[in-house]
Design goal:
globular, 4 helices, two-stranded antiparallel sheet, 105 residues
Amino acid sequence: SLVALKQHFSDVSVSSVYESEAVGFNGSPFYNAAARATTSKSIEEVCAILKAIEKDNGRVHTDKKFCARTLDLDLLTYDSKVTTTPVVLPREEICYNAFVLWPLA
């Protein structure tokens, strides 16, 4: 997925990987990282690209919020924008989940 991110965005940098337990269900550990990139694309375009990268990596979306997945790419912030559509920004997970905070540190 890092190669795909670099194909769509410029100045991509990635944090170290942080391992965490599954949240909301019993499952294998998750491996988390945060990426930063530069783009002139809109929030809608960025979200569509992230979903396409997930799909290309075998991600199947289900109705379950908490489940195993091959890849999960979330847009956490976009400049200093605050919005609720097409996605809530900044993401609430930034404030309370170690698996988001640790890679961002």
